[in-house]
Design goal:
The structure is a homodimer.
Chain A: E1 11-15, E2 27-31, E3 34-38, E4 54-57, H1 60-63, E5 68-73, H2 79-82, H3 85-91, E6 95-98, H4 100-110, E7 119-122, E8 128-130, E9 136-141, E10 150-156, E11 159-163, H5 181-190, E12 192-198, H6 211-224, E13 229-232, H7 238-250, E14 254-258, H8 260-271, E15 296-300, H9 310-315, E16 329-332, H10 341-353, E17 357-359, H11 374-384, E18 386-392, H12 396-408, E19 423-428, E20 431-437, E21 442-446, E22 449-450, H13 455-467, E23 469-477, E24 482-492, H14 501-516, H15 520-523, H16 526-545, E25 550-557, H17 560-565
Parallel strand pairs in A: 3-5, 5-6, 6-7, 11-12, 12-18, 13-15, 13-16, 14-15, 16-17, 23-25
Antiparallel strand pairs in A: 1-2, 1-19, 2-3, 4-21, 8-9, 9-10, 10-11, 19-20, 21-22, 23-24
Helix pairs in contact in A: 4-8, 5-11, 6-7, 14-16
Chain lengths: 566, 566
Amino acid sequence: MSKRKKGNDALRLISLGGVDEIGKNMFVLQYGEECLIVDAGLKFPDESMLGVDIVIPDISYLTTNNFNILGVMLTHGHEDHIGALPYILDDLDLPIFGTRLTLGLLEAKLREHPDMRPRLTEVNPDKVLNLSDNFKLSFFRTNHSIPDSVGVAIETPAGLIVYTGDFKFDQTPVDGRITDYHKLAELGRKGVVAALIDSTNADRPGYTLSEKEVGKSINEIFRLSQSRIILATFASNIHRIQQVVNAAVRYERKVCVVGRSIVNSVEIATELGYLKIPDGVMIELDKVKETKPEKMVLITTGSQGEPMSALTRISQSEHRQVEVQPGDTVIIAANPIPGNEKLVARTVNNLFQLKADVIYRPVSGVHVSGHASEEEIKLMLNLLRPKYLIPVHGEFRQMVACSKIAQKLGMPEDNVFLVKPGQVMEFSEGQGRINGSVPAGRILVDGFGVGDVGEVVIRDRHILSEDGIVVIVLAVDPEKGTLLAGPEIVTRGFVYVRESIDLLDNAKESLMRAISRINGVEMQEWNKVKSRIRDAASSFFYEHTGRRPMIMPIIIDVPPKEKSGQ
Amino acid sequence: MSKRKKGNDALRLISLGGVDEIGKNMFVLQYGEECLIVDAGLKFPDESMLGVDIVIPDISYLTTNNFNILGVMLTHGHEDHIGALPYILDDLDLPIFGTRLTLGLLEAKLREHPDMRPRLTEVNPDKVLNLSDNFKLSFFRTNHSIPDSVGVAIETPAGLIVYTGDFKFDQTPVDGRITDYHKLAELGRKGVVAALIDSTNADRPGYTLSEKEVGKSINEIFRLSQSRIILATFASNIHRIQQVVNAAVRYERKVCVVGRSIVNSVEIATELGYLKIPDGVMIELDKVKETKPEKMVLITTGSQGEPMSALTRISQSEHRQVEVQPGDTVIIAANPIPGNEKLVARTVNNLFQLKADVIYRPVSGVHVSGHASEEEIKLMLNLLRPKYLIPVHGEFRQMVACSKIAQKLGMPEDNVFLVKPGQVMEFSEGQGRINGSVPAGRILVDGFGVGDVGEVVIRDRHILSEDGIVVIVLAVDPEKGTLLAGPEIVTRGFVYVRESIDLLDNAKESLMRAISRINGVEMQEWNKVKSRIRDAASSFFYEHTGRRPMIMPIIIDVPPKEKSGQ
């Protein structure tokens, strides 16, 4: 330790989680050679990342350095906080810390990776986790759209760093467990050097409503409904599921949970005591038909219009076991996540076509956010009184909004760090600054491939998706440079071939002319021939169709020796 | 006429405009052999229609029958009401009727088609258009997000049919031209058989705010701002542009209009007197740099985050003439159209990165809708008192909402027709019913191709966009069925080739084994060989990558004769 340069004695704080819009959730705290990871979330690809399944953070900073990594602390069980963990554990065998439900959900997730033997340590707000001389962790309960969420306070040689995790202040949470206001106050009293604060809703004025308000709306729907009810929500929103169960009990309906992920999370939450379902309320899917529709509520996923989800399939009459009956009440208990609006709209339209009554408008009160609005962020800042603020989780616009909120409370703009992934914040002796950066970015996962799909592949997929491909094959005698056969032209995703025979015939003629202008010597230089063919085909097709398909010339060598040898 | 069957004497009303979600704008009224077209809109493709430029209605019902088509009546100048016209005029040489600004915008549009000589007839609310014994048209002024919008009342042998066009009730319109309430009342008094009503916002309670409210917000921003202002809105929203100009005059700023489409519409609207700009207010783009930022407002397009629009390029620092300065105020005076949320968010994030102050939240009051909310639809129904209601323009969910509104006012549910494109509504002797259907649907336009891109091509583009393509080329002696060269494997959009040499080498070996199992006779049956190769490659790549690229085997015949002849 004594050999380290003085500069290393600052606490380094780095967000690795930024993947596209900044601010997804994976943070590294580093002191000397010692590191702590907080959260390890994945992101779902946006529409530009064609064919990509998920996006995870680049952790090469951690894998290529010989750090002593103490472990990963998880604040709650959402995918954008735990989803990258299986990939990280592939490279780094680390202990994992989290609350009971968080670890329960993680274990279920890791069942798909039977070779992994994660070392899990349960934490809770009454515990202090002494990881090393440099990192002492304590926790405070928060309210969010999943139970058992916590924020974490990390005592470091540079002072107290607090990360709220995802939070809102719900004064009447469904499970009665309010935020640890007193702990937050105590942290603020002690003095917080830097706070990483969930800024997802920082651009919304006022307060986020209590989840109990959703309960009221659901109760009202149950009270009035004389038909079957189908409610779609996020699989992990256990509080909301609890409220649906409560309404079902009150209005004497049976509950059936439909969809793999929600069955899964209901099972785990029930087992661990986070969801309380009286005996006899829950029935299996195959018993639904025996139950009177007006005595039934189905809880399912698909509130984002996800193509493979239960509700989407139900709305397309493609679910094997659930069929919408005219008059069914369908509740979409969620707001569309940006980018999903069209998918949700399509589901709603389809459900109306099936003559369901669909409750989907934000004004209907069947959804509230799990993130703090402006006034709650103010309260958090006033409780914690951090010297420095690092807005996290939101897009850049919300990070800016969070910064403005802090400024309204008197924080100097310079004390807010709007950092990009990889930028290093250093804290020592009560001072913070941005000092350089480390490798960071997004890794695309497609099938089994982690990181092998990069810009080149995505760019090609874009070209292919816009105008398709034209493959042009020539067989050439590599010695004489003479054309033996071809050009054969084959297309996909470009034109409807049956109706484009003339076009392709003319293209072939045009290519023959272009090729005939190439002399024998040049013919042996594949790259030149290919580029001539590409140019000729490109202009021909653009002129005749106004499209720019990918042109792929392939020259196949047919050596005369083989020929004569046969 | 006397030879026609009695059944033909009903008035037929058909929506041809439905393209994806139901309800886009093109209607046909038919009486006997006589037809009238009302509106002829295009739609922009949704994200599933890869590579498609625009979507227009299938008009084969009109082109394959020998109707006497009287012309096309246009209600206003938006693309979703006039955009398909150039394509329709390609097939049908028809007179066109519309108000002054509508025709002005159409003429500008048709300048790209110099061969077209459209016969344009200007209409206005004071005119009656006697097209034939069966079709007499009169017009009523409406308020919408473009000036000179009208609704149309069509007197037919089956009674009065009224189409509102796109409308809201703006009691304080920017141009002072309020809706023709008295005409609507008169129509209602005469008796309306069927009304086609804009249901776009039917699922929004209350009233849509007046465009003047936007003016107030804009004024307030101008009053407080000490920096340059950049405001993005729809090019055709002349009222809004007028209000920005008014604010600029009041607060002594110069105005510069940036972006081809908005320059165009400002020019037309000014020429025709719909936009009033005092001398000396407008300056050219190249004079902007000479003007103090706090004395400048730029009006531009890109409020939907459209990739090629001015604001998007500005936000990416890619606009050649406009650069955002820290502190600039950027106003996004629009709500994202469903599907555009991500694009808009990206533009906003980028602008914040450039240290602009961005006003984009719906609560900021810089945008109001151009469509009627629930209470306005009620007022329209109470004025017109139609016997039958046909909700149009909205998605299916809004059509259902419109139907429910009518039912609240006492209309029987059976009197509301929620029709799919092509379904025929028949009206005679005061009675309406749905009776069969005619061909209808969407035609995809891609480059110069109108309709040649169909399901097959789109499906291929989807496969290509997800996992790319693997082309496998073999050269074969067609007589002996022997393999002369190959298999050559070339991929695009599948894996990053430089890092996948082993994978592709192994694939080649695996294919060689598969091919070696094919005997000589089979080798002459291309389809069999291709399907064997396809299967072998498909399993190999799925097993090794978890991806399902398009597999395209190409067999090129290299005849021995040509070979020996050389």
